[in-house]
Specification:
The structure holds two protein chains of two kinds.
Chain A: H1 2-12, H2 18-24, H3 26-52, H4 57-60, H5 74-81, H6 84-117, H7 122-134, H8 137-140, H9 142-151, H10 158-168, H11 170-182, H12 186-194, H13 199-210, H14 212-228, H15 231-236, H16 245-251, H17 261-293
Chain B: H1 2-41, H2 60-67, H3 69-101, H4 106-117, H5 124-134, H6 141-149, H7 168-193, H8 198-205, H9 210-238, H10 242-247, H11 259-268, H12 275-303
Helix pairs in contact in B: 2-12, 3-7, 3-9, 3-11, 4-7, 7-9, 8-9, 9-12, 11-12
The chains are: A mainly alpha, B mainly alpha.
């Protein structure tokens, strides 16, 4: 009751003059101002690229953030005039989809098994997975991964990239799914077993629905890694047509013609937007999953 | 009946391994085996581009690498980068998290979190490409501001950020801090949310000021998260390679020629790809890192 009264009082009180309001709320204002400085620092580079992608060619060389004349044709231009662009985009989509699906499947199965099927030696596997997070495997194993891929005839093969890509986030994905499945009460799994559910049906009917948020996290983490992987792609392929879009973009030098700056920027916007959009739409599930999976462990 | 029960028991004994098999295949095939294989290669004179069989040379590769001043210089460069990167990537997100934590309006709090995490969902290479353009000499907005807007430099002496100059390591460190800013802030926010709200309230009633609350209540509560972040970021900073490949190149005098680049250069660029020697470089770098990681874990364990 007392609280309700104060709220009403505040609502009834005559509005303060702006100056006094600002003085009274100074700490809050300063806090938001500082946060907005950080927000600006985060967003400005992205705004710059976005504007660059719609600048007219002369404006692109001027440096001013806001162009004098807009030119929206770069987006259609890059698809028509850069031959390898559709190929590279397709490679990116193909490799990323394969990696995300395979890693998620492996992580869900392994995470579920480690928590609810309790295999012999499970603690050892978890310890190995944890240890692998601290060792620079990605760099040090490169020599041997090259050897494996060359033995399998997968050098310069886009599909071949999927195999090492799966392992890049495998350990962390399994550990995330393990934390998520730990939230599913073991009694529930036991009850399903008594009711005659095999482990597959139990996972499908009980495990997966309860692990939805964690799945979103694993999806996004693996998408981001596979979509932007550089080291393995540039080492294991040398044909531009076998490479993914970001790797081609990283090698491109801004200049004239095909690779004029606004056109490069247009390619960039095309490649970076899907991830940001997917995240923005899935953010509620993502934050929940993050709380369940990553931050708890 | 008996047989059915046995079959069920057998199925239950096998099924965990059926579930683990795909993950273990990948984990062993592309992580455990390669590391073991690299350790073995490091004891041989293996060269990828020759047909000569590899010979066991014992510790020769390690001795040669440790005698090479470039090995030490390249390790030191990686340390230097880590020293530039680590403080910023811990302190700034901590500060930001404390500010965002006090935002009570739910919509605004969510908005801040989403925007902060945007860099974390930009794939690595695209972050590098973005900042390669930010730092660009001709069209990059940073030099545009320095030269055309502020007039601190002219086109003739404007800073050359990337390409292996003295400014390259700090430039990459700034980019990395930008990249991890939001992600680490979210980590700290989760830690802050776990602090019971009456704890700082009680301290405030006892007459503690904001600084005292920060030092005695907030910071100790965040210590576990901070330690994990320090260890993990130390690991990623020491083993950076993609950024150096994109921004630095294979100039041995460049500050970006760290042990990872030294290894890559020997393994995939120079001569007949002396991968035995390269493997030894990689193992030395990794071992040096592991010593520090073990030390950090030891120090942190005693405190918390």
């Amino acid at each position: 009751m007392a609280r309700a009264a104060t709220v009403q009082e505040i609502n009834k009180a005559p509005p303060l003059p702006l100056g006094e309001w600002m003085v009274r709320n100074r700490p809050v204002l300063i806090r938001h101002a500082v946060i907005w400085v950080f927000i600006a620092v985060i967003l400005l580079p992205l705004v710059w690229v976005l504007l660059m992608s719609v600048k007219s060619l002369p404006d692109a060389m001027q440096g001013a953030l806001w162009p004098a004349r807009f030119d929206f044709t770069h987006y259609s231009y890059v698809f028509q005039k850069i031959d390898t662009l559709p190929v590279n985009l397709f490679n990116s989509i193909y490799v990323t989809t394969g990696t995300v699906l395979l890693t998620t499947a492996c992580a869900v199965l392994a995470g579920f098994a480690l928590v609810h099927l309790r295999p012999w030696g499970g603690a050892f596997i978890v310890a190995m997975l944890l240890a692998s997070l601290y060792f620079p495997i990605r760099v040090v194993s490169l020599i041997s991964v090259y050897e494996i891929q060359s033995f399998l005839g997968l050098i310069n093969s886009t599909s071949g990239l999927i195999l090492p890509y799966v392992t890049l986030n495998l350990a962390i994905s399994i550990l995330i799914m393990r934390s998520v499945f730990q939230l599913v009460p073991h009694e529930l799994i036991e009850a399903a077993k008594i009711d005659g559910c095999g482990p597959w049906r139990t996972l499908w009917l009980i495990g997966i629905p309860m692990a939805r948020n964690g799945l979103v996290v694993v999806f996004i983490v693996n998408f981001v890694t596979a979509w932007g992987e550089f080291l393995l792609c540039t080492t294991l392929t040398n044909d531009q047509t076998a490479r993914t879009m970001p790797v081609v973009l990283a090698a491109a030098q801004g200049g004239l013609g095909q690779w004029a700056w606004p056109r490069l920027a247009a390619v960039y916007v095309i490649v970076v937007t899907p991830g940001i959009l997917a995240f923005t739409f899935a953010q509620r599930l993502f934050f929940k999953g993050l709380a369940e999976g990553v931050l708890k462990g | 009946m008996m047989r059915a029960a046995q079959a069920t028991a057998l199925r239950q004994g096998i099924s965990p391994w059926m579930f683990l098999l795909p993950a273990l295949l990948f984990f062993v095939g592309y992580q455990v085996y390669p590391i073991v294989r690299v350790v073995w290669i490091s004891f041989t004179d293996y060269q990828f581009l020759t047909n000569a069989p590899a010979n066991w040379v014992g510790l020769d590769n390690y001795a040669n690498a440790l005698r090479d001043p470039l090995m030490w210089r390249s390790l030191w460069r990686a340390c230097l980068f880590t020293l530039m990167f680590l403080p910023g990537t811990i302190i700034l997100p901590l500060l930001l998290a404390i500010l965002v934590d006090r935002v009570t309006a739910p919509r605004l709090a969510t908005f801040y979190r989403v925007v902060l995490l945007i860099p974390a969902v930009i794939p690595s290479t695209l972050v590098f490409v973005l900042w390669k353009w930010m730092y660009n000499f001709q069209v990059g907005p940073i030099n545009h501001v320095l030269v055309d807007v502020l007039g601190i430099f002219t086109v003739y002496n404007a800073p050359q950020w990337l390409g292996g100059t003295a400014l390259t390591l700090p430039s990459i460190a700034i980019m990395e801090v930008w990249w991890g800013l939001g992600y680490h802030t979210i980590f700290f926010l989760a830690g802050l949310a776990a602090i019971p709200k009456d704890l700082p309230e009680a301290a405030r009633l006892d007459g503690a000021n904001e600084w005292q609350i920060f030092w005695n209540v907030t910071l100790p509560a965040l210590q576990p998260i901070m330690m994990i972040l320090i260890v993990l970021r130390f690991g990623s900073a020491m083993a950076v390679i993609d950024e150096y490949l994109i921004f630095g190149g294979f100039n041995r005098d460049s500050p970006t020629y760290t042990w990872t680049m030294f290894m890559y250069d020997q393994a995939f660029k120079l001569g007949t790809w002396r991968q035995g020697f390269a493997a030894a470089i990689g193992m030395i770098g990794a071992a040096a890192m592991m010593v520090v990681v073990a030390g950090l874990l030891y120090i942190f364990r005693r405190k918390g």
